[in-house]
User: Which sequence fits this backbone?
């Protein structure tokens, strides 16, 4: 029997390259497989199954070739939201059930490349429209890989964890995708839509230094590390929030902020044992709301 994750990967253009991340929410340990293709993925399947059985959650992030389509993720949806997407013409390319009545929808807006700033803007707009998690709307956000179990402790029933279920969807661009992109472009060109600054959460800053470009990881680490080194340790949750807020204002991505806070936040695994991932996602989401109010 073909593993569900293979069916998931086969929907993408054959030249697609993937990042696969395995994360243990209890220990915070993360393992990343890079440059995965549909050809070499089966060779890694046994290893990923082993990690999943050992408590790791398994996530996917496609790194598409230039010929690939424009995909966005809508996270934390209900079944009624999936039905609404079909009704509204934003039919999912495919969708996943990640836990009881909780879904992730991957939507192909177009089969042609699109400016990443516009893609990010549309992703946020649709997340807001359908009540999805805006903190997970980054176009490079990792999402679940089908056929593995969701190892969050809150979903454990009788020592069993729910499997990530794969639903094929339409496997092509959604009906309204092109028209929606055209409307957004027209609004921008006619100054009816104001795009966020270039240095936003989806486009981390790259700082020129000594002839070399500073990497995202180094920059995000430097900013957040400074907050934890200089900030008050009286209220560690407040310090986590301050670090998220500071990094968002500097333009770093939610995924990177979460990963770096998890690295530097004192005693996080003890303080938030069993719900670290939810806590960090909520912290970044609340920080982001505050930046928007200003």
Assistant:
């Amino acid at each position: 029997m073909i593993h569900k994750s293979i069916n998931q990967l086969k929907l993408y253009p054959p030249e697609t390259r993937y990042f696969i991340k395995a994360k243990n929410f209890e220990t915070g340990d993360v393992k990343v497989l890079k440059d995965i293709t549909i050809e070499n993925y089966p060779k890694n399947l046994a290893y990923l199954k082993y990690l999943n059985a050992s408590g790791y959650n398994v996530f996917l992030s496609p790194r598409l070739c230039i010929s690939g389509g424009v995909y966005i993720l809508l996270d934390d949806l209900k079944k009624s939201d999936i039905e609404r997407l079909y009704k509204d013409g934003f039919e999912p390319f495919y969708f996943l059930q990640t836990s009881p009545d909780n879904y992730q929808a991957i939507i192909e807006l177009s089969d042609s490349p699109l400016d990443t700033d516009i893609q990010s803007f549309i992703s946020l707009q649709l997340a807001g429209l359908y009540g999805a998690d805006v903190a997970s709307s980054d176009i490079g956000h990792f999402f679940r890989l089908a056929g593995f179990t969701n190892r969050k402790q809150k979903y454990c029933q009788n020592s069993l964890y729910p499997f990530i279920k794969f639903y094929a969807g339409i496997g092509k661009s959604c009906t309204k995708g092109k028209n929606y992109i055209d409307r957004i472009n027209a609004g921008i060109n006619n100054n009816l839509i104001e795009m966020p600054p270039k240095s936003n959460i989806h486009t981390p800053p790259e700082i020129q230094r000594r002839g070399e470009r500073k990497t995202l990881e180094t920059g995000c680490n430097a900013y957040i590390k400074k907050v934890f080194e200089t900030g008050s340790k009286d209220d560690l949750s407040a310090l986590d929030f301050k670090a998220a807020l500071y990094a968002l204002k500097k333009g770093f991505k939610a995924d990177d902020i979460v990963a770096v806070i998890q690295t530097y936040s004192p005693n996080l695994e003890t303080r938030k044992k069993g719900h670290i991932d939810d806590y960090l996602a909520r912290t970044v989401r609340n920080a982001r709301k505050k930046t928007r109010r200003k």
User: Anything to note?
Assistant: Residues 4-189 form a domain with the Alpha-Beta Plaits fold (CATH 3.30.70.1790). DSSP finds ten helices and ten strands in the chain.
